[in-house]
Amino acid sequence: MKAPFLFFITVAREEFVIKFVAMPAELPHEEDRPGIPIAPPLLFVFPILASLVLEWLVPTNFVHGVFRWILGALIVIGGIALSVGGFITQKRAGTDPIPFNPSTRIVAHGIYRFTRNPMYIGFALSTLGLAILVDSAWMLLAVPIGLVLIDRIVTAREERYLERKFGEEYLSYKRRVRRWI
Description:
Elements: E1 5-12, E2 15-22, H1 42-57, H2 66-93, H3 118-133, H4 137-140, H5 142-166, H6 168-176
Antiparallel strand pairs: 1-2
Helix pairs in contact: 1-5, 2-3, 3-5
């Protein structure tokens, strides 16, 4: 059980300031999760699959030559690195990166100093790189569609949950760090 209040002592200009911040109450077990209805990667996979069907029906192309392979591969690798980096950072901090499970702490270091959602940005970059690699203009549409789905179905629920669970600690983090980039 957490203490009902946490206090901070700040030393600034030779003054001592004591702040009392209400600690969030522990949530009941059944409420200690964000309520995400679908695995976030699927919100990019489904638009990718739809774009492949569209590509088969109405073929497109937009990038030619070796440039396509180099650029596409670099973007996919960057996306994977962001996703894996975000996952590992959360694991090392002692919280579960799987959004179906309870969060135990706010992770505000590593890549999370720059964005609150590095794994989702990584999914979007990987989708963009894949669109370039397979030379599909239809798949380019999967990037904004996936981001809108993630924003509406996942991050909105995650943020409400984190605000409920961590209170001012999360609100302060939200004020310091952008949701995306």
